[in-house]
Specification:
Number of domains: 2
Order of helices and strands: HHHHHEEHEHHHHHEEH
Structural class: alpha+beta
Mean pLDDT: 86
CATH class of the largest domain: Alpha Beta
Number of strands: 5
Low-confidence stretches: 1-6, 12-34
Radius of gyration: 27 Å
Oligomer: single chain
Shape: elongated
CATH superfamily of the largest domain: Glutaredoxin
Strand content: 5-15%
Largest sheet: 5 strands, mixed
Number of helices: 12
CATH architecture of the largest domain: 3-Layer(aba) Sandwich
């Protein structure tokens, strides 16, 4: 936001407070004739604005707040449109892992990182959500943004998905602090009833890297800058929220 914008906004607010609206009305009317305020009028208005700002600085704060609110509303509107345009990729990508009724009319999408502590908080909340709401499913989009271990675990998850073990691997990775070494992941997969050697092999498949890249690109396009990023309908909720709040968002979609 430029100082000029702030100054003009403060001036507009001042017109309603100090009663100098007619001066600006004259400016608007004369602008149609190709003329403008006279130097004397401009000096008078500027003097009034300066005096009022000195006497009541809250006017400037109000102007800045109004501009910020306007910017935020504009950004939210643009983000909502972007999410609406991305609905097919968000809710209809058959490759994405999900929990809940696969034919549910309401889809909640979570962009998450297995190493994100707030994402770990959300995992049982999503499980409870789909258990309590048969009309809801939750789609998971892995975006490994928290370092090398996140990248390795995301590859392991999508490799486990090929064996039908995404949920089991997700639960294991998100409830333990152990670093995801190759031997650890192989043993973990075997313990979960998966083929550990196959999992390690599949983790290096370029197709998995491409899926993760696509997820990250989509998150950036939608203005998701951290995890978790939760989408319900066309609304983005940044960060962890309670099961109660999830229920309210879902109920709003059902109404």
């Amino acid at each position: 936001m430029s100082y000029r914008s702030v100054f003009l906004a403060a001036g507009l607010i001042f017109t309603s407070v100090a009663g100098v609206g007619p001066v600006f009305a004259q400016q608007s009317t004369s602008a149609a004739d190709g003329s403008a305020l006279t130097p004397a009028q401009r000096a008078a208005v500027n003097a009034l604005i300066r005096q009022e700002l000195v006497e009541d600085p809250s006017i400037l704060r109000a102007a800045i707040g109004a501009l910020q609110a306007q910017d935020q509303a504009s950004q939210a509107n643009a983000q909502g449109k972007a999410i609406a345009a991305a609905q097919p990729e968000l809710v209809s990508n058959a490759a994405d892992p999900s929990i809940g009724n696969p034919h549910a009319p309401i889809t909640v999408v979570e962009f998450y990182d297995t190493r994100c502590p707030y994402c770990r908080v959300m995992r049982p909340e999503f499980s409870a959500l789909v258990k309590q709401n048969p009309n809801v499913r939750v789609v998971f989009k892995d975006i490994p943004i928290l370092g090398d271990n996140s990248v390795v675990e995301a590859h392991a998850l999508l490799a486990a998905q090929r064996q039908g073990g995404y949920e089991k691997m997700q639960a294991a990775l998100m409830t333990e602090p152990a670093p995801p070494t190759e031997s650890h992941l192989r043993n973990l997969a075997d313990q979960l009833g998966l083929n550990g050697n196959q999992l390690i092999h599949d983790m290096s498949d370029p197709a998995i890297t491409q899926r993760l890249t696509a997820n990250t690109t989509l998150a950036q396009q939608l203005g998701i800058t951290g995890t978790p990023g939760i989408i319900v309908g066309t609304q983005l909720v940044p960060g962890a929220i309670s099961l109660d709040d999830l229920q309210k968002l879902v109920a709003a979609q059902a109404s």
